[in-house]
Design goal:
Protein name: RNA polymerase sigma factor
Number of strands: 0
Mean pLDDT: 86
Domain DUF6596: 178-275
Distance between the termini: 49 Å
Radius of gyration: 25 Å
InterPro entries: DUF6596, RNA_pol_sigma70_r2, RNA_pol_sigma70_r4_t2, RNA_pol_sigma_r2, RNA_pol_sigma_r3/r4-like, WH-like_DNA-bd_sf
Strand content: under 5%
Pfam families: DUF6596 (PF20239), Sigma70_r2 (PF04542), Sigma70_r4_2 (PF08281)
Number of domains: 4
Order of helices and strands: HHHHHHHHHHHHHHHHHHHH
Shape: elongated
Low-confidence stretches: 84-101
Structural class: mainly alpha
Helix content: 55-70%
Domain RNA polymerase sigma-70 region: 9-73
């Protein structure tokens, strides 16, 4: 059954993309894709997984789509037009998908991430269409009720249909403008998996792994795009630490306390190999730079031997590429490791009025840590209180309560 599920996960996006391309109807393609998978669940456990599972699914789905169109008087004319177009193009007949299933997922990536769609809908549609998650599963991913998510997905599909958003890969002149949006959707999915916005768990490994799988698909489809390599490399290098980021009871373990022997070394090596790919051949992009930063962390034996000067230099490059208060916060933390807590705190204080950081708990947490290291315990306690009010997951709140209790109980900040 595990192998069957793996086939479904791998083939779902390819099948859906090919059907959308063929019939021009996302709803129809989703319905017959689901029906084909249901048919496979009924037949494969008895007959075995066929040698060409993608072709089997495609043949089944196309037959079901043709049957639906024939039964629907309104859509019957469309089927005739599609068949004429297919015959002119020399396409495979609808009753036989042949041995090879065309991989048209790249078009689906750009359709799901089209800038005409609302930002909150792009990630949901990507998970629904390319990852093959059900609507309730997507709802859990975004921590909203299934009914709310169903409305979002329906709204996005309606927008695609009414705005006639093209199902195609942008031309060479459009790609630089459109690709960042696709990468941002995948990165957003990974971010929620790496550090959940709320809930009882720090990480949502299923989301992080799904984002990595989608990035692998993009890497295969766009091998010459350096930022695709950078995004995949960055996610691999960060996700390699997943087992060390939580303790036996799910508690948060920060980087300086992690058992680096639990880091996934093969994943680190795979990610490291992508860094030079991302950084050579032209000016660096933000994902390539972030991959290089992650690689420096993963290469170090411990916090003390980390190449902090190089990390600060890379954050300087990243800040120039993507000016943001979050990047500035991370740079300040790196400066504190290179030049001492006072230097880092001065940079954090310069960010005090940044609107984004007011609701971002890592900011007061970083200030609390530096104030603690400087012996300013009352101010550190106040900052920990602020971070505790903003933290979204229970493991983060548990860590903050523990640090706060140590400061308030001893008055020295030492546990």
């Amino acid at each position: 059954m595990a192998s069957v599920e793996a086939v479904f996960r791998e083939e779902h996006g390819r099948l859906l993309a090919a059907l959308v391309r063929r019939f021009g109807d996302l709803d129809l393609a989703e319905e017959v894709t689901s029906e084909a998978i249901e048919a496979a669940l009924a037949h494969w456990p008895v007959d075995g997984v066929p040698p060409k599972p993608g072709a089997w699914l495609m043949t089944t789905a196309r037959r079901k789509a043709v049957d639906r169109l024939r039964r629907d008087q309104v859509l019957a004319a469309r089927l005739a037009v599609l068949q004429v177009e297919a015959d002119r193009a020399g396409a495979v007949p609808a009753t036989d998908a042949g041995d090879d299933l065309p991989d048209e997922r790249l078009q689906l990536f750009f359709t799901c991430s089209h800038p005409a769609l609302a930002a909150e809908d792009r990630g949901a549609l990507t998970l629904r269409c390319l990852a093959g998650l059900t609507t309730p599963e997507v709802a859990r991913a975004f921590l909203v009720p299934p009914a709310t998510m169903a409305k979002r997905i329906t709204r996005a599909k309606k927008k695609i249909r009414e705005a006639r958003i093209p199902f195609r890969v942008p031309g060479a002149d459009e790609l630089p403008e459109r690709l960042p949006g696709v990468l941002q959707v995948v990165y957003s999915i990974f971010t929620e998996g790496y550090a959940a916005s709320s809930g009882p768990h720090l990480q949502r490994l299923d989301l992080a792994e799904e984002a990595i799988r989608l990035a692998r698909v993009l890497r295969r489809l766009l091998p010459a795009e350096r930022e695709v390599a950078g995004l995949l490399g960055m996610m691999l290098l960060i996700h390699a630490r997943r087992d060390a980021r939580t303790g036996p009871d799910g508690e948060l373990v920060l980087l300086d306390e992690q058992d680096r022997g639990r880091w996934d070394r093969p994943m680190i090596e795979e990610g490291r190999a992508l860094v030079p790919v991302a950084l050579t051949g032209g000016p660096p992009g933000p994902y390539g730079v972030q991959a290089a930063i992650a690689a420096l962390h993963d290469e170090a034996a411990d916090l003390a031997t980390t190449d902090w000067p190089q990390i600060v230099a890379l954050y300087d490059v990243l800040l120039a590429l993507t000016p943001s208060s979050v990047v500035a916060l991370n740079r300040a933390a790196a400066v504190a490791m290179r030049d001492g807590p006072q230097a880092g705190l001065a940079l954090l204080d310069e960010l005090a009025d940044e609107p984004l950081l007011r609701a971002y708990h890592p900011y007061p947490m970083a200030r609390a840590d530096l104030l603690h290291r400087l012996g300013r315990h009352a101010e550190a306690a106040a900052a920990y209180h602020q971070a505790l009010d903003l933290a979204g997951t229970e493991p983060e709140r548990t860590l903050l309560r523990r640090r706060l209790a140590a400061i308030e109980e001893t008055g020295s900040g030492r546990a």
